[in-house]
TrEMBL record:
It comes from Streptomyces inusitatus. Residues 30-253 form the Radical SAM core domain. One of its GO terms (molecular function) is metal ion binding. This is Radical SAM core domain-containing protein. Coiled coil: none annotated. CDD domains: Radical_SAM. PANTHER family: PQQA PEPTIDE CYCLASE, RADICAL SAM DOMAIN PROTEIN. SUPFAM superfamilies: Radical SAM enzymes. Keywords: Iron, Iron-sulfur, Metal-binding, S-adenosyl-L-methionine.
Amino acid sequence: MTFDRLDLVSKLYQPSGWPRVLEAAAGQRSSGPLVVDLDPTTFCDLACPECISGKLLNQGRFTPERLAELAEELIEMSVRGVVLIGGGEPLAHRGTRNVLRVLGEAGVAIGVVTNGTMINQNLDELSQYASWVRVSMDAGTSETYGVFRPDRKGRSVFDKVIGNMRLLAGVKKGALGYSFLVMTRRLPDGTMVSNHHEVLQAARLARDIGCDYFETKAMFDDGHHVIQVAEDILKSVDEQLAEAEQWADGSFEIINSSTLTSLRNRVGAVQPKDYHQCKVAELRTLITPSGVYVCSYHRGNSQAKIGDAVTERLPDIWKNSDRGVIDPSRDCLFHCARHRSNLEMDKIATEAVTPEMGGDYDPFL
């Protein structure tokens, strides 16, 4: 079935999640999250200068035993989708393979956001159980990859990652995505370096690898505000994406994130919100070794921490926590991918929309 991977509003209207969507829309505490972002570890084998989680890296991980327990607790809570992400590199944890197997065999949909360096060690589980794997590439050549995504010794492992993606493309059951974050960096001498000129080359490579989609995104700063780019860079990116559309067919898709759309519309770094409760926080949450947080945008924010998954069971955290500790009108002035979902749930609460239910097709709302 063809669907818009980024149409998060439409994903609210799926039968299996609808009861909890109604709870959240009415301002009630939901019986459990539908989707969970899970950071198995904060360790990463790359040293990307622009990493938005750079200040949170290499500060701990779940033990393999606790990680296995978390998988069982997520199943107990009837979570429909789990995204293994970071923080660090999720495939760097030796317990991740077991999590993929346990969740997958329980029918939980699994997404994986990875740098791709360890796909080969996790190939069997990824190919068998992952609904989708998105590899953060941000380049179309080894040279540019080495500038923006070097390993800890400053080397480019581009060829290794591309080889791993080819391996997965040959055996995968789910979707494989090539993610390209448009980046610029000003060097000490004032020179500007960028990866934007490789969008078309990267899209061609993604198609040749056997990826299902190529996604282009804009950069965030440490506060999750979208970083504006020069007009000529944005024009170049758009021209390359337009040319890349020639390869879009039933098996390969060119998609743009909402952050790139915000750049095109020049909406600025701030996204004002006039509501005080994030209803999506009743449907999604983030679990990391340092704590459970209201959402991924607030990873590491002590004010948004609602529990400690190292010492507390997830069902107990959900039962006892206050997901309303964050006020979007005050604390979420950055671009939020689920802003429109919050607005939609306000309409659902007032019966301003008539739901049209289809089947379940993608739990990652």
